[in-house]
Design brief:
35% of the residues lie in helices and 14% in strands. It is of the alpha/beta class. It has a 6-stranded parallel sheet, with helices on both faces. Helix 2 packs antiparallel against helix 8. The radius of gyration is 17 Å and the shape is globular.
Length: 217
């Protein structure tokens, strides 16, 4: 007997903002996820090292999770000294939760770049992929991604509940045009980040003077 699926959302979270949280909230509600696990990276494999320390980013993620019912923080990637490969995290979670479907939450930009991920062909052996899409946008899929969708895409939400892994679900979301890079530039310029990230996170950033000078570097 399978338990309800959970969502898994990894990221640098430098800082965590509505562009991370709003699609996760919509996926939680649309798919009936039991929880959403937020996993801050220690060593991000696909981008430069974060500006804020692991401790600061973890503190902000904890504040964001406390502000959203059903969101929890998973610190496992911060405890590693190796790059935060998604496949390693999913293998661990599958071992710990053998009867729980796992839904790895990602954006369309990540899906388009999936062939560059470490052991990306194995991801669906451990989880479903739930992809946040901009309504009406027609992405230019590579041959590899197009083949992945042809084999694994489902339009039946119950497939994500009936099976532990193996499906791709494209989830239409309200568009949120915000990146952490743009947000850091806004903070560095001293502009008000209200409505762009949770109030407790904004308060933490102000209190600790984060992103003031080197935010756009």
């Amino acid at each position: 007997m399978l338990t309800p699926p959970i969502g898994v959302l990894g990221g640098t979270f430098d800082p965590i903002h509505i562009g991370h949280l709003r699609p996760a909230i919509e996926a939680r509600d649309a798919l009936g996820l039991a929880e959403v696990r937020l996993l801050p990276n220690h060593i991000p494999p696909h981008r430069a090292n974060p500006l804020c320390s692991s401790e600061q980013r973890l503190a902000m993620v904890r504040l964001a999770a406390a502000d959203n019912p059903g969101f929890v923080v998973d610190e496992r990637e911060l405890r590693r000294d190796t790059p935060s490969w998604t496949i390693d995290t999913l293998v661990e979670l599958r071992s710990e939760l053998p009867d729980t479907p796992l839904c790895f939450l990602m954006g369309m930009d990540s899906l388009l770049g999936l062939p560059g991920w470490h052991r990306w062909q194995k991801l669906l052996d451990y989880a479903h992929l739930v992809v946040s899409c901009r309504p009406g946008w027609q992405p230019d899929y590579s041959v590899q991604v197009a083949e992945l969708l042809a084999r694994h895409q489902t339009r039946d939400i119950q497939d994500l509940h009936r099976q532990r892994h193996g499906h791709v679900w494209l989830c239409d979301n309200l568009p949120v045009e915000l990146s952490a890079t743009r947000l850091r530039a806004l903070l560095a310029a001293g502009q008000d980040p209200k409505y762009l990230l949770p109030n407790p996170v904004a308060d933490y950033i102000r209190r600790h003077g984060l992103y003031r000078s080197s935010a756009t570097q």
